Automatic annotation (TrEMBL):
GO terms for cellular component: cytosol. It comes from Reinekea marinisedimentorum. This is Cytidylate kinase. CDD domains: CMPK (cd02020). SUPFAM superfamilies: P-loop containing nucleoside triphosphate hydrolases. It catalyses: CMP + ATP = CDP + ADP; dCMP + ATP = dCDP + ADP. Its main location: cytoplasm. It is found in: Cytoplasm. Keywords: ATP-binding, Cytoplasm, Kinase, Nucleotide-binding, Transferase. The gene is cmk.
Length: 222
C-alpha cells in the first residue's frame, strides 16, 4: 500500500505543471513530473545518436536511464548522465520527441516502476497523461484538466515570452494540436480521463480558481 496520490492528467500546455507544483508546496507532498521522464528518454536517445524510430534501442535507453532529481540553491534540478538538463528538456523539440518515444509500450513499461517509486509519505501529486488510468489507478483523487487548444497556445506563448524566448502563436498552436493528436490516438495509454476522474475545464479559470477547485475536491473526500 503506497502513500496517498492525487493524479493530475491532461493535454500539454493546460497548466498541470504550475498547478501540481503549487499543490505539492501547499500540501507539503512530493511531486512527480512524469513528462520529464519521457523528455529525458528522448534527449538521452538523441545524445547517443539513436534514431527515435528504433523502438528497441529507445526502449533500452528508457530501461537504463541514468537520472537524478536534485535540489540546489537555484531550485530543483534534473541531472542526466552527470549533466544538468533542467532547461534543455523543456524545448518544443524535446517535447515533440518525447511524444514519439511515449508511444512505445516498452518505453512506458520501463518507466512505470520508476514513477510508482515516487508515491511515498506524506503523499504525491502526479502530473502526466496516464497517471489516473495506468500508473496510479487506485488514487483517491483524480483530476483531468483541459482547456481549448487556442487557450493553451496563448498560455504557452506567454510562458515562453516570460522566459525571454521568441514564440510564434501559429507554430505553437500547430505543435499543440499535433501533440494532442499523437497522445490521444496512440494504442498504449492514450490520453483520456479515468472513469472516476473529476473533469476540470480551465479555459476560463485563473490559477487560484483551479487550485481552489482541486483543494475543495480533496477536502470533500477526507
Ligand atoms: O507533459 P510534457 O509536455 O512534459 O510531456 C511530454 C510528452 O510525454 C507528452 O506529449 C506525452 O506524449 C508524453 N507523456 C506521456 N505520459 C505521461 C507524461 C508525458 O505519454 N504520463
Amino acid at each position: 500500500k503506497h502513500a496517498p496520490v492525487i493524479t493530475l492528467d491532461g493535454p500539454g500546455g493546460v497548466g498541470k505543471g504550475t498547478i501540481s507544483t503549487l499543490l505539492a508546496e501547499k500540501l507539503g507532498w512530493h511531486f512527480l513530473d512524469s513528462g520529464a521522464l519521457y523528455r529525458l528518454t528522448a534527449l538521452a536517445a538523441s545524445n547517443h545518436g539513436i534514431s527515435l524510430k528504433d523502438e528497441q534501442a529507445v526502449a533500452l535507453v528508457a530501461e537504463h536511464l541514468d537520472v537524478q532529481f536534485a535540489n540546489d540553491a537555484s531550485g530543483s534540478q534534473i541531472i542526466l548522465e552527470n549533466e544538468k538538463v533542467t532547461e534543455a528538456i523543456r524545448t518544443e523539440e524535446v517535447g515533440t520527441n518525447a511524444s514519439i518515444v511515449a508511444a512505445y509500450s516498452r518505453v512506458r513499461d520501463a518507466l512505470l516502476k520508476r514513477q510508482r517509486a515516487f508515491a511515498v509519505e506524506p503523499g504525491l501529486i502526479a502530473d502526466g497523461r496516464d497517471m489516473g488510468t495506468v500508473v496510479f489507478t487506485d488514487a483517491p483523487l483524480k483530476i483531468f484538466m483541459n482547456a481549448s487548444a487556442e487557450e493553451r497556445a496563448t498560455r504557452r506563448v506567454r510562458q515562453l515570452q516570460e522566459k525571454g524566448a521568441t514564440a510564434d502563436y501559429d507554430t505553437v498552436l500547430a505543435d499543440i494540436v499535433a501533440r494532442d493528436e499523437r497522445d490521444q490516438n496512440r494504442a498504449t495509454a492514450p490520453l483520456k480521463p479515468a472513469d472516476d476522474a473529476v473533469l476540470l475545464d480551465t479555459t476560463c479559470l485563473s490559477i487560484d480558481e483551479v487550485m481552489n477547485a482541486i483543494l475543495d475536491e480533496a477536502a470533500s473526500r477526507q
